From TrEMBL:
Domain C4-type zinc ribbon, first and last residues per copy: 202-236
Tagged with keyword Nucleus: no
Entry protein name: Zinc ribbon domain-containing protein
PANTHER family to which the protein is assigned, alphabetical: PHOSPHOLIPASE C-BETA-2-RELATED, SCAVENGER RECEPTOR CLASS A MEMBER 3
Length: 242
């Protein structure tokens, strides 16, 4: 294949743009912000799970407090009713029965009130845990939002760089003959790098030195001959006059 040396040199610009695009692709896959987002999201999930656990325990105790308060209230109403019956002219037998019932109500009320106090203390302690867990979950949410914002900014920068590189690539290819462009693309897809500058005896694509025989073949080729590196297969772009 033949191509004007000036056209061949455009492949170096194309290779440089492709190298930049490769770096963008690598950077996109290895953004530290991606790791940070993953870690922050896992931490948020853990904090939310902790909050659910303590909130569930708190709700259970809260329901128990309400149940005990309801029982104590019922006992008080029953006590009030009995006292009203006692003061309403009950018979001696009724008075005796009411007194025994009041004694039982008082004992039961005392047990329930002690139990209620204990559960309320537990609920109060858990309320502090709920508050701390809520604060921890909120802080974790803010952390996720912060790292996501930095990730999005980094991705936006990469998108801009990629768009710029893609546009530059298209512009260069528009000025490269179709056959030469197709050869470059095929080599790039197979080897990763499509072209490199021959610097002395070293290939700019694979960084290896050509042996004496291959180097002589390259030097003897016509300026418009498209030559390739025997090591990596990339198009060797020679400096003007060499």
């Amino acid at each position: 294949m033949k191509a004007d040396p000036a056209v061949q040199r455009r492949l170096l610009d194309l290779a440089e743009v492709d190298a930049d695009l490769n770096r963008v692709t690598h950077r996109r896959r290895t953004l530290p912000e991606l790791t940070e987002v993953g870690e922050a999201e896992r931490d948020l999930t853990a904090k939310r799970d902790d909050l659910v656990v303590v909130q569930t325990s708190y709700n259970d105790l809260d329901r128990e407090v309400k149940r005990l308060e309801g029982e104590v209230d019922q006992l008080r109403k029953r006590e009030q009713r009995d006292r009203e019956l006692m003061s309403g002219g009950a018979s001696p037998k009724q008075l005796e029965d009411l007194e025994r019932e009041l004694e039982a109500l008082t004992r039961r009320q005392g047990v329930l009130e002690d139990e209620l106090l204990d559960v309320m203390e537990q609920r109060e302690a858990l309320e502090m845990n709920v508050s701390k867990a809520t604060e921890a979950a909120t802080a974790a949410e803010e952390r996720v939002a912060e790292v996501q914002e930095r990730r999005d900014a980094a991705v936006a920068d990469l998108d801009t760089a990629e768009a710029r590189g893609t546009a530059s690539r298209r512009l260069i290819l528009d000025n490269v003959p179709e056959g030469l462009a197709a050869l470059y693309e095929r080599i790039r897809e197979q080897k990763g790098v499509g072209a490199g500058l021959l610097q002395g005896a070293r290939c700019g694509a694979c960084r290896l030195e050509l042996d004496r025989s291959a180097l002589n073949d390259v030097r003897e080729a016509a300026p418009d001959d498209v030559v390739r590196c025997e090591e990596c297969g990339a198009i060797l772009v020679r400096e003007s006059g060499k």
